[in-house]
Amino acid sequence: MEVSTGTMVIEDEAAAAAALAPLRARLLGALREPGSATTLAAALGLSRQLVNHHLRALEAHGLVELVEERRKGNMTERVLRATARAFVVSPRAWAALAPDPDDEPDKLSAQWLLALAARLLRDVSRLIGAAGRSRVATFGIDGDVHFATAADRAAFARELGEAVGALVARYHRGEDAGARPHRLVVALHPAMPPEERP
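Now predict its structure.
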């Protein structure tokens, strides 16, 4: 793991799995400022034992570190903080954790979409690494659509698939010599509200 300007790049897949677990990610966010299992448990409405268990797992992977120990009666309170202000999972680590699209044949499932997103991240990261200072030719579309009904959403998805399929049929050159292979990913999913930072 490498620390740079307050950001830690997580290269180890076990550390990535620990950081991506929802509760542990919340703890990492809360520990931008030092805290203990007791203070975190109170803030998050959880038991101290549960929080302490997850903190030890994060500490074992170098994601949190001990700041100080305070004696409180018969107990020692351990005060910890995150080892960086922000964490980024390296594509190499994510590749080991990511699902394989070929293992999720249900193209309407969220799991299959996640697998596609993981492959997109992995492939584009490899392209950037291989290109060095050269520009990689890519294209993306991002936008919001508000559907009146579930039937409208289904109709939109069907028409979008047909339109994209027609374009692919028009331009695809199969295995022709000199053809330039590209991967096309089109996604549609419910929008999430912006996350509030702790």
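Confidence is low (pLDDT under 50) at residues 1-5.
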